[in-house]
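@channel sequence for tomorrow's demo:
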Amino acid sequence: MAIYSIKKIHGLALLIGVVLSTTNRGEYISQKKEHNHGPDINQVNACRVPKPVKKNSRTSQLSTQRIVALNVTGINQSTASALSALPSMTRLCQRTRRDAKTVLTNPNSLALIVLPIESKPCHRGENFYDVIVTQMKIEY
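structure tokens (generated this afternoon):
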């Protein structure tokens, strides 16, 4: 009876050792090595982060860094340590955008510029965009 040891990838990139043995007739008998622990909750939570990053990359017009930041905020420190590095997350976002062909818009005029609400008020409480337009009218 010949015995072969094989490593198999299962689920969240965890390695499980599988021992295969053959009978005299050449039939394979599989014997799995059972886990003696549960899944690491931090890795499970970290695996849930790339999905919304990809979804927001396809649908949102926000910058790459902003998308990554919005999806990473609110995660506890131990889960954050199991996440991919920041450059990897930004590359994931850029790759998803490139594959979906949803690039950021490049406006041709002031009327096409869309500012987020949190960027509109200036230090005096007025809308930032209105102040620029007013100053441009005064200068001309």
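heads up for whoever presents: The chain is about 40% helix and 15% strand.
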